[in-house]
Specification:
The chain is an alpha+beta fold. It is built from 14 helices and 16 strands. It has an eight-stranded mixed beta sheet, sandwiched between helices. Strands 1-2-3-5-4 form a five-stranded mixed beta barrel. Bound molecules: 4-amino-1,4-dioxobutan-2-aminium adenosine-5'-monophosphate (4AD) and magnesium ion (MG). One of its GO terms (cellular component) is cytoplasm.
Length: 482
């Protein structure tokens, strides 16, 4: 067995003048004397002091940035400035060399763009150490939140034959020979010969299966990878992202909104309480970054202020119809500054509109409800037509500053006749969703749920600006490296 102490606990130790072993990767080696070692247990490094007069020259040469080393030594209170503890090395072993000519991470600031190209190594920077600690804490907090409330964690399938969102943005899953696929008599690819004897794809959402479970357990959630083959090259979209989808029986849209707001506040509070060092680091990183921007583009609040502000205030709730009124008479709409001008009810909201509402108008998270039926999914509960006969559904989107849509959800259409009528209008074949429709056949009940884009949450809490920096190995159009 390997015995070592973690850098995190050594940096906090009160027991000095004892022998310790530390293992980690060299961040810097100064003056042939001071090694900064990081083992990932925290952002900080521990300083190892080397007696170079009594250390083999060849060994000293191998202590290079990126090398993995094991150090045995005595832990002492540091006499130098900048750190509380040092390890006086008694022996050093090189576990893995790192050629300094080739190792791409130098002890200097690298751009996020460059680090994205070496995503396999970027974990070894302080920024990515902090981001992924925050990501971990948020994931853990989500499970804790639902567990405390008695939800059952469901693992819904990743390979499915249905399109949950009806948007057709799916990655096909097949084992057919693409060079020479079997064909039906009319020349189409014959999926009855495929692995599952039908056409299948990667799931875009676990919701439909989640609904089945909710209609037995009462309250469930999923937390898994979802896939969208949409050609969106933005700082908010991934082709593979993680979604948290609670589904609750005997719950209406109000309950749904409350659950989402409670969950978001709970997990943000958890991250602030449990990742104080990391969030502090990210807060300062953002302040530094903002310094290079012109005054009017800088955010009014620091990251920590923004997170606390979100905890201390109720999310603003309003209907789509009310939002359209605000947008229509807004300055950027009047002055034709929006790329997509809002002139009539029914328009889908673009991210510029969402951001106007959240960042300029309300200046806090906003929950928009009751969207036009035509821009939302088939399964959403149909409202009574409004006074002028317009059709809306009991949908809700939660919009966040700097992010846009963080959560999308709805009360579900539990009435069989209404659901089937809507599916017919949209040409969604009932045979394929017979099992989904069974929930409406046997003991249907009001129920609601939503989907949280996990990376968008990490983006908000870490203060990063590109979604590709908050998932380990981002998948996006024309990129599946690593
Ligand atoms: O709004 P969406 O498409 O909703 C659903 O999939 C529902 N079935 C959820 C439900 O009611 N159970 O996606 C939900 C959330 C969005 O609000 C957004 O945060 C995130 O998933 N999302 C993405 N995140 C990253 N990259 C993408 N391409 C995303 N598409 C959606
Ligand atoms: Mg949505």
């Amino acid at each position: 067995m390997i015995h070592r102490e973690k850098v995190k606990s050594l940096l906090e130790t009160e027991e000095f003048n004892r022998e310790v072993t530390v293992m980690g990767w060299v961040r810097t080696f100064r003056n042939n004397q001071f090694i900064a070692i990081n083992d990932g247990s925290c952002m900080g490094n521990i300083q190892v002091v080397v007696d170079f007069n009594h250390t083999d020259e060849a060994l000293l040469k191998r202590i290079t940035t990126g090398a993995a080393i094991a150090v045995n030594g005595i832990i002492v209170e540091s006499v130098g400035k900048g750190q509380r503890v040092d390890i006086k090395a008694t022996s050093i072993e090189i576990l893995g060399d790192s050629d300094p000519e080739k190792f791409p991470l130098q002890p200097k600031k690298h751009s996020l763009e460059f680090l994205r190209e070496i995503a396999h190594l970027r974990f070894r920077t302080n920024t990515f150490n902090a981001i992924f600690k925050v990501r971990h804490a948020l994931a853990f907090a989500i499970h804790q939140f639902y567990n405390e409330r008695g939800f059952v964690y469901m693992h819904t399938p990743i390979i499915t034959a249905s399109d949950a969102e009806g948007a057709g943005e799916m990655f096909r899953v097949t084992t057919l020979d693409l060079e020479n696929p079997p064909r039906t008599e009319d020349g189409k690819v014959d999926f009855s010969e495929d692995f599952f004897a039908r056409s299948t794809n990667l799931t875009v959402s676990g919701q439909l299966e989640g609904e089945l479970a909710a209609m037995a357990f009462g309250q469930i959630y999923t937390f898994g990878p979802t896939f969208r083959a949409e050609n969106s090259n933005t700082t908010r979209h991934l082709a593979e992202f993680w979604m948290v989808e609670p589904e609750v029986a005997f719950a209406d849209l109000e309950d749904n909104m409350q659950l989402a707001e409670d969950m978001l506040k709970y997990v943000i509070r958890y991250a602030l309480d449990n990742c104080a060092t990391e969030i502090d680091f990210l807060n300062n990183r953002l302040l530094e970054e903002e310094k290079s921007k012109p005054q009017n583009e800088r955010s009014e609040m620091s990251l920590i202020e923004k997170l606390n502000f979100c905890l201390d205030n109720d999310f603003e709730r309003l209907t789509y119809t009310e939002a359209i009124k605000i947008l229509k008479s807004s300055k950027p709409n009047q002055k034709k500054q929006f790329k997509y001008l809002i002139d009539e009810w029914g328009a889908d909201l673009q991210s510029e509109h969402e951001r106007y509402l959240v960042e300029k108008h309300f200046k806090k998270p906003v929950i928009l409800t009751d969207y036009p039926a035509d821009i939302k999914s088939f399964y959403m509960r149909q409202n009574e037509p409004d006074e002028v006969g317009r059709k809306t559904v009991a949908a809700m989107d939660i919009l966040f500053p700097g992010i846009g849509e963080m959560v999308g959800g709805s009360q579900r259409e539990e009435r069989m006749d209404k659901l089937v009528a809507r599916m017919e209008e949209l040409n969604i074949p009932q045979e394929e969703l017979w099992w989904f429709l069974d929930t409406r056949r046997f003991g249907s009940a009001p129920h609601s749920g939503f989907g949280l884009g996990f990376e968008r949450l990490v983006l908000f809490v870490s203060g990063m600006t590109n979604i590709r920096d908050v998932i380990a190995f981002p998948r996006f159009p024309k990129n599946a490296e690593f």
